[in-house]
Structure formats: C-alpha cells, structure tokens
Write a structure and sequence with these properties.
With 332 residues, the protein is mostly beta strands. The chain has a single domain, classed as Neuraminidase (6 Propeller). Helix content is 1%, strand content 47%. The protein contains 1 helix and 25 strands. The strands form 6 sheets. The protein has a 5-stranded mixed β-sheet, with no helix packed on it. A 5-stranded mixed β-sheet has the order 2-22-21-20-19, with no helix packed on it. The longest helix has 4 residues.
Length: 332
C-alpha cells in the first residue's frame, strides 16, 4: 500500500511543556482476566478495538519465532498471523480497528523492516523508507501511525497518515521518534529517545500538529506511551530508579494513575485502550515469562486505585528492552 500523497515534514512546535504529574486518585483499574496464546513463551497484547477484539504478538515456545495474533471478545484466538514475505520468522502485530484491519511490521533477511496491513486474508506491504518502516497503530477511519528512518537525512521519525497524506514527526532533541497510535480525532501519542539524556519520554500530538512533551511521571527513568482512545485517554508504562516498570494511565498528562499487576515480578505495561475503557497489557512473572491481561478503567471511582500495591522485586536480570538496546526497534 503506497500513500496517494507523501509529504514528509517536521512540524513546528508551538508548545513544549515538561509534565511530571502526581498519581491520580479518582480512577481505578480492575483486572478482568489473564490470557496466553496457546503454545507461546511470551504473550504481548498491543491494542484493543472498540468491539473488544485485541491484537498483539507472541513468541512461539517451540521455534522462537515472533508471530502475531488477534483474540475475539469471547476469548477465541486466531491462527498465527505471519506476514508471507518475511524470511526471518519475525512478524509483529501492532494495531487493530473496528473493521478488524490489522497493522504491524516484519523483517527480511536483508535487515529491512517493513510495515504491513492485513484485511480479512489479504496482506498489503507498506514502506515509506528503504530501510525501516513500522506501522504501530490504526484508527477506525483507516488512518494510521508509526515510525520510519528518513532516507533523506537518516533520522528516525514518527509519522501519521491521514487521508493518504503522510506527515513526519520529530520531537526536538530526539534521536528517534515513534508514533504509536492515532485516534478518530487525529490526536496521536508515542514516545521519543532524547539526545540530551538517552532516556525515553512520552509525547502527545494534537490534531493541529502541536506537540506536548516531555510527558513523564515523577521519578521516571524512561516513559513509553502506547495508546490513546477517542476520548484521548492514554496508556503506557514507565520505569523507576529501582528498575521496576509500572503501567500508567491518564486523561490529562499532569494526573497519572500508576498500575502494577498484582504479583508481577517488576514489570507491568498497559498497551492499548478502547473507547469503553477496556485495556490490554502484559506483565512478567517470577520465571521471566510475559502474560497478557484484560482490564477496565473506572475513571470516576472514589476508592484508592486497585492494583497500586508494590510489585515483587525482579528475580532475574532485566532483559534488554527494545527501546534501550536499539533505536530502530520499537517497544512492545
């Protein structure tokens, strides 16, 4: 799939507001269920549609291959989603919309990362760059977002494709920018890696192209924003100085809710949120395995946030995260 128009440009930033808010006290997150793709070593849900269909990726326990999946509202899993052009056993499903159009990325043996779409049974490749393109989110109108390495200057930038027009996004001082989701109002969210400190920070882009950054909970040593719904509620994760990774949720980026999956061994991530407030995420257990979960946010609860109990201390060395070990590889 090639866009009808291709305009790569860096938008002027009208406001750059450092935000480090307190933990929200008016919302709770309740875990509904956990799930694992059958035969998987690691299960990593990425997004959830307004119809309750989740999508993500898993690592096959037998072959070690990275493959995609989607899961119905009733809990039925699809067959593995494998992009037919990959020759490296590496496919990642990143997003899904209400029409069940899936987006993601795959790699080939020449080292190139390609984006793709899957509609029913039809795969369509999508490349902006000759070396690196990933499609990370898609909205119900079929507009989408992701990241690419610009052939003109070699910089990794985020992008949004709206009505067939692609716009590049680069946060000032960013070594790399990734745009993880775009909602139906063309508001987008993602993260960037800063040249100044080498850390990941969240950002928001409004429908006019204005950027708000950096977005970091207090004490964060690395923030990733993964998803926003049509109300612009945002989910993601952040790490603290002790090496614990917490899920995060906010409706405004100065009032965060921190969420730790009960019993998680130091890692919780909230990856996607739909219009009804259902969230898909993952946590790591004491054996170092990742499991998916479905949760729901109640934004008006009066009680203390459920799941704010401290997680277990990590029991093994932290595995290098993609966003830290390599600029080109997006987080999951």
């Amino acid at each position: 799939m090639k866009p009808r128009k291709l305009f790569i440009r860096i938008l002027a930033v009208l406001f750059a507001i450092p935000l480090a808010g307190t933990v929200a006290q008016g919302a709770t997150i309740e875990v509904i269920e956990t799930f694992d793709y059958p035969g998987s070593l690691l299960t990593r849900p990425q997004k959830i549609s307004d119809l309750g269909v989740s999508a993500g990726l898993f690592i096959d326990a037998t072959t070690g291959a990275s493959e995609g999946f989607y899961r119905s509202r009733g809990g039925r899993f699809s067959d593995p989603v494998i992009e037919p052009n990959t020759d490296t056993a590496f496919t990642e499903v990143r997003g899904i919309n209400n029409k069940r159009t899936i987006c993601g990325d795959y790699t080939t043996s020449d080292g190139v990362s390609h984006g793709f779409f899957l509609s029913h049974t039809v795969f369509t490749d999508y490349d902006i760059s000759s070396v690196f393109t990933v499609v990370l989110g898609i909205n119900n109108a079929g507009d989408f977002s992701g990241s690419f390495i610009d052939d003109a200057d070699g910089l990794q930038k985020g992008f949004v494709s709206i009505g067939g027009t692609v716009t590049g996004i680069s946060v000032p001082d960013a070594a790399a920018t990734l745009t993880y989701q775009i909602n139906s109002s063309n508001e987008a969210t993602g993260y960037y890696i800063a040249n100044s400190d080498g850390l990941t920070h969240g950002y928001l882009r409004d429908s006019s192209g204005n950027l708000t950054f950096p977005i970091d909970p207090a004490g964060s040593t690395g923030t990733i924003l993964f998803g926003n719904n049509d109300s612009n509620w945002v989910v993601g994760r952040y790490a603290d100085a002790s090496g614990i990774t917490h899920g995060l949720f906010f409706m405004t980026p100065d009032d965060f809710l921190t969420f730790d999956f009960p019993g998680a061994a130091g890692f919780t991530s909230l990856n996607g949120i739909n219009q009804q407030g259902y969230i898909v995420g993952r946590y790591t257990d004491a054996s170092g395995n990742d499991h998916g979960f479905l949760a729901k946010v109640n934004p008006n609860a009066a009680a203390e946030p459920q799941g704010n109990n401290p997680p277990l201390t990590p029991v093994k060395s932290v595995k290098p995260s993609p966003e830290i070990s390599g600029i080109g590889a997006p987080a999951s």
